[in-house]
Design a protein that fits this description.
Blueprint lengths: L18 E5 L5 H10 L13 H4 L1 H6 L5 E7 L6 E11 L2 E9 L5 H19 L3 E6 L4 H9 L3 E8 L2 E9 L5 H4 L1
Parallel strand pairs: 4-5
Antiparallel strand pairs: 1-2, 2-3, 3-4, 5-7, 6-7
């Protein structure tokens, strides 16, 4: 997700009453590229990130039924993307959540939560047993959002003086609160 939190400035557009999550379409490419670029930490692509999937979403996410890419827009604001998320096959029973981005003018936790819920529903339907994700952001909103859905912090790696936080969720075990 984007590094800056949603400002409460009156210059921000209002949150649409209804948010629509749908499959990426080629006409979304400009907004997807904007969300991706706006979400880069300090405006720079990580050394291990080519961004090639953003340039080839159909090939990277839509040709494999176990993968997918969604965007969210507000009702009445068709064609203006507020966020995006992708799921890619990592291994036979493991998915990776990728490219979670929310336009910084909108509530990160609200829209991010809707996108994560969409991705998790897909992962369960496809039959994944484990989901992994990573983030370079150390923000309470992002960490709280991942924890809300049961993700566990696995490890932190330093890369180019930035911390990369890795998380996982075991779908076959159920949420931690249900096991206690």
């Amino acid at each position: 997700m984007n590094e800056s939190s949603s400002p409460s400035s009156s210059s921000n557009p209002p949150v649409p009453a209804k948010l629509i999550v749908r499959t990426y379409q080629p006409a979304d490419q400009a907004d997807v590229t904007r969300l991706y670029t706006d979400g880069l930490l300090e405006g720079q692509i990580a050394a291990n990130d080519t961004g090639a999937d953003i340039e080839n979403i159909t090939q990277a996410y839509l040709n494999d039924p176990a993968s997918h890419f969604w965007v969210v827009e507000g009702e009445g604001q068709e064609g203006v993307l507020l966020g995006m998320i992708g799921v890619a096959r990592e291994a036979e029973h493991t998915a990776e959540i990728r490219r979670l981005r929310v336009d910084k003018r909108y509530p990160q936790e609200l829209i991010g939560g809707i996108l994560i819920e969409t991705a998790l529903t897909h992962c369960k339907r496809v039959g994944y047993l484990k989901i992994v994700l990573d983030t370079r952001f150390r923000r309470d909103t992002v960490l709280g959002l991942f924890e809300r859905f049961g993700f566990q912090h696995n490890r932190t790696r330093s890369h180019q003086d930035k911390d990369l936080l890795e998380f996982y969720l075991d779908l076959y075990r159920g949420p931690k609160k249900d096991r206690e």
